[in-house]
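thread from #wetlab-drylab

HS: before we spend reagent money on co-crystallization trials with PMV, can we at least see a predicted complex? here's what I'd submit
DV: go for it
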Amino acid sequence: MAPNRRTAVARAGTNIALVKYWGKRDVQLNLPRTGSLSLTLAGLETVTGVTVDPGLQHDHFELDGHIERGVPLGRVGRFLALVRERAGVTGLFARVVSRNSFPTAAGLASSASGFAALARAASAAYGVDLTAEGLSALARRGSGSAARSVFGGLVEMEAGVRPDGSDACAHQLVPPGGWPLRLVVAVTTEAAKDISSTIGMGATEQTSPLYEAWVASHAVDLEEARLAVAGQDLEVLGAVMERNCLGMHACMMAARPPLLYWNEATVAAMREVWNLRARGIPVWFTIDAGPHVKTLCRPEEATAVKAALDAVPGVARTIAAAPGEGARLESMG
Ligand code: PMV
């Protein structure tokens, strides 16, 4: 039995995939075609409060002080309906109040921290008891990358093989304090992207002749990245991270019509990372479904990397983040 009126507040950090997920084996259940490997970040977070309230006639969603309707409310409402189904309740709606500490929908993966925080808070508010893996599989229904933000540090997401998706969840490889790393983001625009990852990956799968080749090479990338993480070999991990991302973007560019998330500053920042490496600074990049360039380095090089990326024409600002914790409950009342 779910409680009548209850508020749960949860916090989750975003994560950046070093080996990407792009494409779904089941759209309905949001099952990924490939596994992925990511780093959960401290400081780039979503805090979400979920209040289940018998007085409400429908779900409400407020994001960064704006009342959301239409598509964002629909996505949150469908997610809450799943949680209600697990709780065995009907007609008990919720008010969701969410805050991001970084720009929404600009390729900084706010859906990852957003749905991880929502999964944690909503399951608590509706009284659904889940293991960490169960919470990860639930978060996946909101956004594929959210399954990884349930865990901190370096995380691997399994594509899974079961048709019901119960084995398509993430697990932790290295806790946040286990390998000192920094992720430095070069923000190349503050504008929201115009093609969502769901639309972009569907178009890539259906129309890009390069997509199946990327999926085939992905298994090798994931295996190599997993070994590099186990051996804390940044050079190998960095090389895999760059090639896996460039392969994914090559698939997108070969889609019909072509899909290009980059802008001029994206390319300039990529070149700067290669310049830094040529000068002996160990740093590698990845790029998601957006124009920002996310670089991985050791803490001792982070200041130099940040300064170099700040000086790239078109880079609006940079953000340096350390590995962070997974989704956690902040309060319950
Ligand atoms: O989970 P979504 O729908 O936000 O898709 C994430 C896609 C990428 O960020 C490009 C790759 C990834 O694995 O996070």
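DV: The chain is about 40% helix and 25% strand.
HS: ok that's useful, forwarding to the group
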